[in-house]
Amino acid sequence: MKTIILTIFIGLLIFKTTFAQHNQTNFITSDIDNFWQAYDKIQTTKDSVQQYNYINHLFIDRGTPGLKAIMKVRDYTAKSYVDAINSYPLFWNSIRPNTYKTRQFAAEIAANVQKLQKLYPALKPAKIYFTMGAFRTGGTTLDSMVLIGSEIAMADEHTDTREFPANFNSLKTYFKTNPINIVVFNNVHEYVHTQQKTTVADYLVSQCVLEGVAEFLAEKATGKASTLPALAYGNGHKNRIAAVFAAQMFNSGTGYWLYSNAENEFGVRDLGYYVGYAICENYYNKAADKKQAIKEMIELDYNNLAALGQFVDRSGYFDKPMQVIKADYGKNQPTVTGVKPFVDGKTLVNPATTQLTIQFSAAMDKRYRNFELGPLGEKNLLKLKRFVGFSDDGRSVTFEIELKPGQHYQIIVGSGFRNTDGINLKPYLLDFTTAGN
After folding, report:
1. Residues of the signal sequence (predicted)?
2. How far apart are CA 281 and CA 259, in angstroms?
3. Do 394 and 250 have their domain in common?
4. Where are the beta strands (DSSP E) in 132-192?
């Protein structure tokens, strides 16, 4: 009997060791060495052609699949890197020692991924790439790859940000929180994303639950509390956050709730993480089978509103069922009520018309607007020559246009327009033809 128990123990020990070693071999940092080789060469010349040659041949061409992926998802180019290197020398010199510390985290990250697997036995392998970016993400994912932007993730309170422009103020604040101290936690968060069915969700509520699952399970796996300021603030302002979020939860964008420094009534960014986390926490606490609850969180199709609705309703986070909230959202969604000086779709438009004014059913937030291609595509796109402005009451907006005779024009007034309550506009197709010569 003792022999059998010993054999089982040894088997488990071998499995654990193999799993941990496997995860460490999926931990890749070579992009960092390549970046600094290119960086040092770029410092030797002011010739832009040479600088681009160095960044391409020493860094990008040698890049791991992780570098290729982070460049793809964050639209990085050789110019992104060269501009960043030339603009912030004090920053790069201060961050460099920390970026070499990435290898030190391999064992700890592997151990925490192993803990995550205990919570979710169906965990699939993923590779973790500590690569270098140009200030657009500290961490993201693509397929089965965790992509860490080490220039952000490895920063600390001593990182020099004196050269940063005003639009980098959020990074200045973030660096003061010593992000290097939570790099293991953040890696587990991103690892959870590699297991989820959806990475980009259609609705605000979908994306927030997706992020909330990752943040909640990172806590469960690491045994450490999230340091997100949004979570601390949210716990003290639950009711108001839930009410405001419910009014906007079916918006097609994330607004100020995620990934944004936009002004909001709470004065706190990323509160969508809190909403998603709170929904998951409620769901987990109510579940009799905790392991099954975790499985359901990870495997949820966040873009399936029926499935998502059941999940959210069972959490009890909102006072009303999702279906009722969605119906209320539709009633409150602002609409286009008219376009001056012509009647859309009913008469030929005078090609001499130089301005159009779009009228709305509600006062709109003057900071936001967007347009999209109509069904006929770019060939028939109405081109807006100049933005004139919103009316004082925000219920109309005017643009200068340039028309040609005998042309069929289309443009969609998009959901990026939103009213002063933050609710997206119901998209409107502007479709008309100009009179001939």
Report:
1. 1-20
2. 21
3. no
4. 139-142, 145-149
Say yes or no: 300 and 389 in one domain.
no
Tokens matching residue 352: 């001499």
Reference 148, options 112, 80, 101, 82; nearest CA is 101
Whether 394 shows a pLDDT value over 60: the answer reads yes
Domain edge (last residue) among 332, 367, 389 = 332
Amino acid letter, residue 252: S
Q: What phi and psi values does residue 304 have, to the nearest 5 degrees?
A: -90, 100
Contact (Cβ atoms closer than 8 angstroms) between residue 209 and residue 311: yes
Residues 432 and 63: their CA atoms lie apart, in Å, by: 49
> Based on the structure, what is the number of domains in the chain?
3
Domain that holds residue 378: 336-433
pLDDT, tens digit (0-9, with 9 covering 90-100), for 1-30: 444 444 333 443 433 444 444 445 589 999
Q: pTM for the complete prediction?
A: 0.87
pLDDT in tens, 50-87: 999 999 999 999 999 999 999 999 999 999 999 999 99
Whats the size of the chain, residue-wise?
A: 437
Residue 162 phi/psi, 5° resolution?
-60, -25
**Angle, CA 43 vertex, CA 40 and CA 45 arms, to 5°:** 125
